[in-house]
Amino acid sequence: MALSLFSKSKKAIIERAQDDYATKMRLKYKPYYHAMESQSGTRIRLNGRDMIMLSSNDYLGLSFHPKVIEACGGAAKVWGTSTTGARISNGSRSYHVELEEKIAAFLGREACHVSVAGYISCCSAVASFAQKGDLILADKNIHSCLVDATRLSMATVERFSHNNPEDLRAILKGLPHNTPKMLVVEGVYSMEGHICRLPELAQIGEEHGCFTVLDDAHGIGVLGRQGRGTVDHFKLGDQVDLVCGSLSKSLASTGGFVAGSRAMIDYLRTNSRQTLFSAAISPAMAATASASLDLMQSEPQHLERLWKNTKRYREMLKGLGLDIWESETPAVPIVLGSKELVYRFWNALLDQGVFTVMSIAPAVPPGKDLIRTAVSALHSDEDLEKIAAAMAYAVKQM
Ligand SMILES: Cc1ncc(COP(=O)(O)O)c(C=O)c1O
């Protein structure tokens, strides 16, 4: 047998990936990547057991609305499954333009651009505009897509204390006046459920010439008239330059959007690498978002039910003495403070047929390890009673 002249050298990257501690722990305890066998509204089936979903971002519960389902399937029949191309080249269709005009009108903006993911849209809202030499002022708790975008932009990043206008003001005082600046905040913080102190933050941004980007992934559908989001909630005008967000929460689809003045959206379409080099959103997902947007305006009962459920759910958790990090919205964390406690609590809920998601440091600040829950307009009174019993049981296991 002929021997190879060259011995095979080890691949350091493969070894590092194989030794990765986080992956080993994930495979051992299996807290993530659960593939549910079926779903109908808030009810899911996991490992042969029926459970209540308590961590979805389907705030308005539209993902099972008959009109949304019909729009989704109908679009594929008319347009096929995908445009298989980027918007700038062969991927633009009239339904993209119609959806963009609808979102822009809903948010009171001149123009909008949609893409295949909220991650991509939010990333492009920051990375297409900020450049090397600029200064980005970002809340300490912004979503990872915005963090990644600040890195991509090559701008210098200053992080201010979470939702703290005084800290933003103090940081801005020490910065050069003439350097181009961007302020990056979220409307509703997805883990904490906090509403952004937007009036004060945007005002400070204005005083210092900041271009303000608001990621309202969790504000759209939840806050403001008919779910128009955080800007509408505070009745603010154009102090916010760009609003970006996701179609995968209240809009029951997948995809993302950036809305702003026509000039800014035209600039984004020329300069956003996320837009230029990625295929367009599919017909089915665009039609889904479009139908959801119509329903948000024609069926107010979903938003009403969402807030009724949110109030009841928050009171239930507070009554059990749980720390909900002062959440003000349907995204409600249960802060337990260590990964061991989080794991036990999460397991106890699972045992009682309630599905939630664990979030541990570094995904959350140290000492804030939590169970991320979210209530939906679709949760029935019976669901909420079952959830209350499961929560009481989990508290007793601590
Ligand atoms: C605040 C925020 N921005 C952006 C995104 C990304 O949205 P998508 O899941 O549509 O990519 C998310 C999703 O978790 C989010 O919570």
UniProtKB/TrEMBL annotation:
Keyword ATP-binding found: no
Pfam families in alphabetical order: Aminotran_1_2 (PF00155)
EC number in record: 2.3.1.-
This protein's UniProt keywords: Acyltransferase, Transferase
GO molecular function: acyltransferase activity; pyridoxal phosphate binding
UniProt entry tagged with the keyword Phosphoprotein: no
Major enzyme class: transferase
Cofactor(s) required for function per UniProt: pyridoxal 5'-phosphate
Aminotransferase class I/classII large domain span: 50-390
Source superkingdom: Bacteria
PANTHER family: CLASS II AMINOTRANSFERASE/8-AMINO-7-OXONONANOATE SYNTHASE, LD36009P
Protein known as: Pyridoxal phosphate-dependent acyltransferase
Species in which this protein is naturally found: Lacunisphaera limnophila
